[in-house]
Design a protein that fits this description.
By secondary structure, the protein is mainly alpha-helical. It contains 10 helices and no strands. The relative contact order is 0.10.
């Protein structure tokens, strides 16, 4: 199999795409359950601090209980959980009660499959492609969790940061000094923006999770990619934010999560960062 992957980029790309589809199904579980697991943990910690008795509850994690329809509690069988195919066969409805299934589930699966395949094709067979795919999965989970809850869990951002530094001990994506500077500058850049905005307005402009996410991206890709990531995420965020306010009547005081745009900027930088930076420097005639 390894010989096949080495000799055939098509085979490697196809297998990575299929694995990405399957992992995308699990990412839907992570996106849905991890914030609820965090909420449970916070409630237990508050009860413990207040000296209250902690009520026993059924186990709830990324493995148990089995996935079920939130409307009728029908347990989802294996054949109903085949990425994309099950959604199409069921016509986007629960087999038991006919309640519509959110199209977000196949969207996450498709994004995971497509981006995994693209990473495999872009980096070709090797450990770099495998780690790039892992980076893609983490950013997808963070983007959708933040979109839903305005939370960027430390249980993903911090391991992602440390893994980026460890990988770059061997110059996997950048040199170790660049990775360390990327983590520090990534965190401090948004930290300064946060406190500047807070001192000027008395309000929180973003969450601390955004600092950690940009630090993680910097640890993976190096400090040189951070201006591009911030620029891309800011432009896309501004355009979408203005569109929501004008078209969808989104209240100006309703916060818009920044994590999905940082994740998008990180993915673009992963695949096209060097090329875009070179074009930018040539545009302004910077040697």
């Amino acid at each position: 199999m390894l010989d096949l992957f080495q000799s055939s980029l098509f085979a490697f790309t196809t297998v990575c795409g299929l694995v990405g589809l399957m992992v995308g199904s699990f990412l839907n579980v992570v996106i849905h359950r991890l914030p609820r697991m965090m909420e449970r943990e916070w409630q237990e910690q508050c009860a413990e601090l207040n000296g209250a008795e902690i009520a026993k509850s059924e186990p709830y994690n990324l493995v148990v209980p089995r996935s079920a329809c939130p409307h009728c509690k029908h347990t989802i069988g294996a054949w109903e959980n085949i990425p994309l195919i099950s959604y199409l066969i069921l016509r986007g409805k629960c087999k038991s009660c006919g309640t519509r299934i959110s199209p977000r589930y196949p969207i996450v699966e498709a994004l995971s499959g497509i981006l995994s395949a693209y990473a495999a094709w872009h980096f070709a067979f090797g450990w770099i492609a495998c780690f790039a795919i892992l980076f893609v999965w983490a950013l997808l989970a963070l983007a959708f969790i933040d979109f839903d809850t305005q939370l960027l869990p430390d249980s993903i951002t911090l391991p992602l940061l440390w893994l980026g530094l460890l990988l770059n001990l061997n110059n996997t994506f950048t040199s170790l000094p660049n990775a360390v500077l990327g983590a520090v500058i990534g965190y401090m850049a948004l930290w300064c923006v946060y406190w500047g905005f807070k001192l000027a307005t008395g309000k929180d402009g973003m969450g601390f999770g955004d600092f950690k996410l940009l630090a993680a991206i910097g640890a993976w890709l190096g400090w040189q990619m951070l201006p591009l990531v911030i620029l891309l995420s800011s432009v896309v965020g501004a355009v979408i934010g203005i569109t929501l306010i004008v078209v969808a009547k989104h209240g100006r005081n309703i916060p818009i999560p920044f994590g999905p745009y940082l994740a998008g900027g990180g993915l673009i930088a992963l695949f096209c960062g060097t090329t875009l930076t070179q074009h930018y420097l040539q545009l302004f005639a910077i040697p």
